[in-house]
Amino acid sequence: MVTSPLPPKQLFFGRIAYTLSSRELFIHKRAAIGVDGFGIIAFLDDTVSSAEEAAEKYQFQDADVTLLSTSQFLFPGLIDTHIHASQYPNCGIGMDLPLLDWLYKYTFPLESSFSNLEFARDVYTTVVKTTLKHGTTTAAYFATLHLEATNLLSEICWKLGQRAFIGKVHWLSNAKADDQKVCMTTLAPNYYLEKSEEESLSSTRQSIEYIRKIDPQFSRISPIITPRFAPSCTASLLLELGNLAEKECLPIQTHLAENKRETELVKSLYPESSSYTDVYDKANILTKRTILAHAIHLDIEERDLIAKRGSGVSHCPASNCAISSGIARVKWLLEGGVKVGLGTDCSGGYSPSVLDAARQASQVSRLLPDPSKSRLSLAELLFLATLGGAQVCGIADRAGSFEPGKCWDAILVDIGEMDYWDDSSILQKWVFGGDDRHIKKVWVDGKLVHENL
């Protein structure tokens, strides 16, 4: 793993690709990008014929120059809008149960072990290094209930150079549902519960202050308020968390309508609310900076409410399939004005790769009742993996594309000789056949944070 200091300026020349919307995929065969000494994109120019011409035109003669080979291209860094850092050791196992049973059998025992800080350090270091290797420049992480381990994840992300949202998880309620459709005796084992609302809120406030000491402006590492899902919190705790996010101007992440049994559970626990989404709305959880993971089992009123509040959805196709949750209607969400990005959802999802999530998103979009209306295009997949994710995370002003003024969060991809294919085919081959071996360099905020030699 490499973390480099910022050079004075950087100039790149070669093939460059990015999206500006779900329908706009731009591929420049020969273009120049300049990055200033603060890691900010100074220009993108596809009219110059060489790096030398660009350097003279933009006064970048003192820049470090990278000339891309014909087998390489630059692409914005990938954005994982939903990943459980603590569950990484379980990736690839436990694919035999639906959500609530899966949590009880596999997830809670693993997450409870993060009281051991040595274990937490090993896992979290591996997670951040691995996701960077896969081109993830930004990740929205769920940690665990443990304050010290959550703080450790913040340190590791800062040290290794990843842009990250760090969420100390809230799990307080152990309510019993009356509805027999739920078939759960209790929601979580007693060994993995917080003792009180006061303890739950206090630990999150401490986590916020800890991250503030690392990154005072939350420019790269940000706290994110993280009620695991509505059934894990009392109504009063949800409201307190919504108010805390508003007071501190912080983003929020949680789960929504992932599984039918889960939605039945919410109806049983919150009978006064008209829907699962309404539970969050009443608690001030739906904001312009809220990430809602999954959002599969929604009606049109819920979709429209999410759009009205400006919240975003993390589409997690791998885990949705693996634990039999269902298929999110991504185009239906986008058409309703809902922001959508991609999530790997480790370890419900078996891979930490956003590129793999894009592949899965393509496949499941073809399985809905009318594929002609639900099928995702290449442009849409690449948008979801980058700018769409940035919009969901509330960082579209800083990341997700190569517009001047944004941070240089980027990956250099090399897929071998490409003389046989046109530019669109090159990107298709990468999306559907690429992996971490093809990602040669990764930058965040202008700094080289990973290099695959």
Automatic annotation (TrEMBL):
Pathway: Purine metabolism; guanine degradation; xanthine from guanine: step 1/1
Catalytically driven reaction(s): guanine + H2O + H(+) = xanthine + NH4(+)
CC annotations in GO: cytosol
Cofactor(s) it depends on: Zn(2+)
Molecular function as annotated in GO: guanine deaminase activity; zinc ion binding
Pfam families named in the record: Amidohydro_1
SUPFAM superfamilies given in the database record: Composite domain of metallo-dependent hydrolases, Metallo-dependent hydrolases
Gene Ontology biological-process entries: guanine catabolic process
Enzyme Commission designation: 3.5.4.3
UniProt entry tagged with the keyword Zinc-finger: no
InterPro entries, A to Z: Amidohydro-rel (IPR006680), Metal-dep_hydrolase_composite (IPR011059), Metal_Hydrolase (IPR032466), Metallo-dep_hydrolases (IPR051607)
Keywords assigned: Hydrolase, Metal-binding, Zinc
Domain Amidohydrolase-related: 73-449
PANTHER family hit by this protein: GUANINE DEAMINASE (PTHR11271:SF6)
Sequence similarity: Belongs to the metallo-dependent hydrolases superfamily. ATZ/TRZ family.
Functional description taken from the UniProt entry: Catalyzes the hydrolytic deamination of guanine, producing xanthine and ammonia.
Name under which the protein is recorded: Probable guanine deaminase
Organism: Neolecta irregularis (strain DAH-3)
Lineage: Eukaryota, Fungi, Dikarya, Ascomycota, Taphrinomycotina
